[in-house]
Amino acid sequence: LWLTFRVNGWAGKRLSASAATHSRKLHLGGLRLFDAGQVFRLTRRLFSLVAWTIAIVFGSAWLSFVLARFPYTRPWGEQLENRLLGLVTDLLLAIVGALPGLAFAVLIFVIARVLVRIAAIFFDQVERSESKLGWIDADTAKPTRRIFNFVVWVFALAIAYPYLPGAETEAFKGLSVLIGLMVSLGATSVIGQAFNGFILMYSRAYRAGDYVRIRENEGTVEALGTFVTRIRT
């Protein structure tokens, strides 16, 4: 145990410092993706977690070995050893058993991502063109894209849900019901506002560039969205 924590303290600090140094080089559009201090603390905690896991395994193995040396405590040692081996075996079997379902779920989300990308090409062409394609034109292409993306991702989640690890457990089902209830109760006004925004866009009450007066606000419509209409007064 002493050696484990000494190695964790020595190697953890150096590897965490190296990770923090490399994180400063990661930028996206001129914006730093990770804070060096947060990366250092996160990696230190990960190394500490690994060290404590090794310590618990070694401690349990040592305790079961010592208890098995004496006739009176031998049943305790054998029971502790069997329980530890059973826990590790169940964990490994659960990981191996969840891999096929997890791979299938990832495949479903990848297919959904491809469909969204293909649809984005189509909607981008509609937005850039002046011609009208059925009931979709440059003004309704953006809300139609959002509705299509929402339907695709919800459908993908519904298909992939049974294949997620732990989806058949009662805890997972209860958590899903709780989250659904929270969303349904808390997002009622948000959904109503979203429908109002879609109605305005599909009814073409006003478009970007129109000069409008809405109550005390008067000006040119700059952008028309699902939740927000921006007017330059």
Task: Outline the secondary-structure elements.
Elements: H1 2-23, E1 27-28, E2 31-32, H2 36-67, H3 74-128, H4 141-160, H5 170-186, H6 188-203, E3 211-214, E4 217-224, E5 229-232
Antiparallel strand pairs: 1-2, 3-4, 4-5
Percent of residues in β-strands = 5-15%
Helix content: 55-70%
Total beta strands: 5
Tally of helical segments: 6
CA-to-CA gap between the ends? Answer: 69 Å
Biggest pleated-sheet summary: 3 strands, antiparallel
The radius of gyration is 28 Å
Write the H/E string, N to C.
Answer: HEEHHHHHEEE
Mean pLDDT: 81
General description of the model:
With 233 residues, the protein is mainly α. Helix content is 70%, strand content 9%. It is built from 6 helices and 5 strands, in the order αββαααααβββ. The strands form 2 sheets. A 3-stranded antiparallel β-sheet has the order 3-4-5, with no helix packed on it. Helix 1 (2-23) runs antiparallel to helix 2 (36-67) and helix 3 packs antiparallel against helix 4 (141-160). The longest helix has 55 residues, at 74-128. The radius of gyration is 28 Å and the shape is elongated.
Please tag this protein with its features:
233 residues, mainly alpha, three-stranded antiparallel sheet, two-stranded antiparallel sheet, elongated
Task: Describe the structure in brief.
70% of the residues lie in helices and 9% in strands. The protein has helices at residues 2-23, 36-67, 74-128, 141-160, 170-186, 188-203; strands spanning 27-28, 31-32, 211-214, 217-224, 229-232.
